[in-house]
Automatic annotation (TrEMBL):
It comes from Apilactobacillus xinyiensis. InterPro entries: GW_dom (IPR025987), GW_dom_sf (IPR038200), Peptidase_C39-like (IPR039564). Keywords: Signal. This is C39 family peptidase. The lineage of its organism: Bacteria, Bacillati, Bacillota, Bacilli, Lactobacillales. It comes from the Bacteria.
Length: 317
């Protein structure tokens, strides 16, 4: 009888040890796989909630970043919004607030989207202001680019330098070549007897010949790339394509006529804005006291004159 009891006791002890071993092995396996082997359902729920919260927080700052250069310009809304060196998450660098650029239009360079937020990297006149929450930006219907007006008639008289000065105004929207005088910019323009390679003639004098003194869009584009690599020859573009360029914040130098009146002469001007049915055009052939340096012209009138001179056009993106 005692022997039987002793054997039964040994058997029960063996079962207990075996069960414990199973629990230990299960706990070890769970541990290396990142789970818990607790038998407390409430503790399991608490751990699951903590994991879910951590995952949600990670998703909140898990941004997908893409280019937004095909987006149209927007306006910084009034109020104090914050600027960051990266799409916001804990630890990013604070760059400042928007107080100095409230109400101004900005170009959208990159877009970052997470599960809960959208941020844009913005710039104006070539200056990168950092990342801003999309809620701090508003849509616009009138686009006026941040250009710097330049004339081919003052302070330097250059009656045949409309190509160079129109390009200079287009570059100014990106903050490029702004530090150069008109004379320096004209002097740096490539020269050649072949208008496919450079400017033919004397930009500082009226043309007494029956040969065009000009430079074609391809070499003019190449010259523009010296100051901004995003200069492009878009000759042949239709007005609808040019509207998109302006809305994206890109000025366009084109061949038309003075004040956009009469037939096309090849005189170059710069488109620096757009509103429904109209372009805002800057004409470089103006003296200091002249009015109407910048004017609105209908897009239909633009297309009519533009078509008459081979649709020559150069954009700075």
């Amino acid at each position: 009888m005692k022997k039987t009891i002793y054997l039964a006791t040994l058997s029960l002890m063996s079962i207990g040890i075996f069960t414990s071993a199973i629990k230990y092995s299960s706990a070890y396996a769970d541990a290396i796989n990142g789970t818990s082997a607790t038998s407390d359902p409430q503790q399991n729920n608490n751990n699951a909630n903590e994991d879910n919260n951590e995952n949600e927080e990670n998703n909140q700052y898990n941004y997908e970043v893409t280019s937004s250069r095909d987006h149209y310009m927007m306006k910084v809304l009034n109020g104090t919004s914050y600027l960051w060196d990266n799409p916001y998450k804990p630890g990013v660098k604070y760059l400042g607030n928007t107080n100095k650029i409230n109400g101004l239009t900005v170009q959208l360079n990159q877009k970052a989207v997470s599960q809960s937020e959208t941020y844009y990297q913005i710039s104006r006149k070539g200056k990168n202001y950092g990342w801003i929450n999309a809620k701090a930006l508003g849509n616009i219907s009138t686009y006026v680019l941040p250009y710097t007006y330049s004339s081919q008639l003052y302070p330097t008289l250059a009656p045949n330098a409309c190509e160079a000065i129109s390009l200079k105004m287009a570059l100014s929207v990106k903050g490029s070549a702004d530090n150069l005088s008109t004379k320096t910019f004209i002097d740096n323009m490539p020269r050649s007897s072949n208008i496919h390679k450079g400017f033919r003639g004397n930009p500082y004098k009226h043309n007494p010949t029956n040969v065009s003194w000009t430079i074609l869009p391809a070499p003019l584009t190449k010259y523009g790339k010296q100051y901004n690599s995003n200069t492009a020859n878009i000759s042949g573009y239709h007005k609808d394509q040019i509207i998109k360029e302006i809305k994206r914040g890109n000025a366009v130098a084109f061949a038309g006529s003075r004040n956009m009146r009469g037939k096309a002469t090849g005189h170059m001007l710069t488109i620096v804005g757009y509103r429904y049915g109209q372009f805002l055009v800057a004409d470089p052939y103006k003296y200091a006291g002249d009015g109407n340096k910048i004017f609105w012209v209908s897009t239909s009138r633009f297309q009519q004159v533009y078509d008459q001179y081979n649709r020559y056009a150069v954009v700075v993106r």
